[in-house]
Amino acid sequence: MGKMIYRMCLVVLLFIAVAGGVYYYLTFLQEDETSEKGIFVNEMDFDDEEPWAV
Question: What's the rounded Cα separation, in Å, for the pair 49 and 6?
Answer without folding.
Answer: 64
